Amino acid sequence: MIQSKAIKKQYPPGDFAIWIVIYIELITFGLFFIGYAFSRRLNVDMFNNSQLLLDKNSGFIDTLLLLTSSYFIVKAIQNIKDKTLTIKKANEIASKWLFSAIGFGSIFLINKLLEFSNLFEHGITLSTNTFFMFYLLLTMFHFMHVCLGIVILIAIFKQTKLYSYTSNECSGLETGASYWHLIDLLWIVLFSLVYIIR
Amino acid sequence: MKRTVDVIWINLLLLSLASFLIGKFELSNISIFIILLISIFIKGELVIDYFMGLKDVDWRYRSIPILWLVIILLLIFIAYYLPEQS
């Protein structure tokens, strides 16, 4: 029988608990984003002028790094699920993709630290103004999520070195991947909202 | 499917580049603003569907992040657009 429509999976990929975490994180960051947007209404000029002090190039590089690291993780999962590959080969290829993703994530952290240190050198802190309070809170909170994400990716990477994942048993990999994609999704909104939109 | 992800990734990079250039030239009017919001929605939707893998998942789980994105973008639009009216 020919099926015209793909059968929908009942549950999202990975452990279901991670999706509870993801939905909570979305709400938390969402409140921050809305808080930023409505606080801006009180002093548009100050927000626009402060925004000019941010390094857009650095923000753009961060975006490319996160999007690409997410892409690498998708490639890793694709290889694990590729039934034409042996378990050993699939895990070996996936580990290379994951290593690249960890590398890009780490470069993101270094780039962000440089950005923070540059701002601190100019005397900018949480108490400088409302814009920088939101900017630093949002980016530092996101930074902490990236740190945790990298720890998770390293744990997954170690499992690929032990050839732990198969096309049918890769829930751990999908769980970690889902969390990393959340970080990516949040950054997409954060970058445009804080660095670009005027 | 394998190729699809490559195309999605390239599209995400191109959309990000477009957003970056808009920011770089400090373009700001209502049309640009709406284009940026649409761009965020498209990028978010691509990540949700193809990276998070929710495209072929029960609509209840897929709709939560999409709804989140829509609500956030609508509220940002309201927050940014209302002052221009006063």
Automatic annotation (TrEMBL), chain A:
GO molecular function: cytochrome-c oxidase activity
Keywords, comma-separated and alphabetical: Membrane, Transmembrane, Transmembrane helix
UniProt cross-references to InterPro entries, sorted A to Z: Cyt_c/ubiquinol_Oxase_su3, Cyt_c_oxidase-like_su3, Cyt_c_oxidase_su3-like_sf, Cyt_c_oxidase_su3_a-hlx
Annotated organism of origin: Sulfurimonas marina
Main location: membrane
Cellular localisation: Cell membrane; Membrane
This protein's name: Cytochrome c oxidase subunit 3 family protein
One of the Pfam families matching this protein, by short name: COX3
Any one GO cellular component localisation term in the record: plasma membrane
Residue stretches spanning the membrane: 16-38, 58-77, 97-114, 134-157, 178-197
Alphabetical GO biological process terms: aerobic electron transport chain
Family: Belongs to the cytochrome c oxidase subunit 3 family.
Domain Heme-copper oxidase subunit III family profile stretches: 16-198
UniProtKB/TrEMBL annotation, chain B:
Organism superkingdom: Bacteria
Record's protein name: Cytochrome C oxidase subunit IV family protein
One Pfam family from the record: COX4_pro
Organism this protein belongs to: Sulfurimonas marina
Keywords tagged on the record: Cell membrane, Membrane, Transmembrane, Transmembrane helix
InterPro entries reported for this sequence: Cyt_c_oxidase_su4_prok
Location in or out of the cell: Cell membrane
Keyword Cell membrane: yes
Keyword Cell cycle appears in the UniProt entry: no
UniProt GO cellular component terms: plasma membrane
Major site of localization recorded for this protein: membrane
Bilayer-spanning residue ranges: 7-25, 31-52, 64-82
Topology of this chain in the membrane: Multi-pass membrane protein
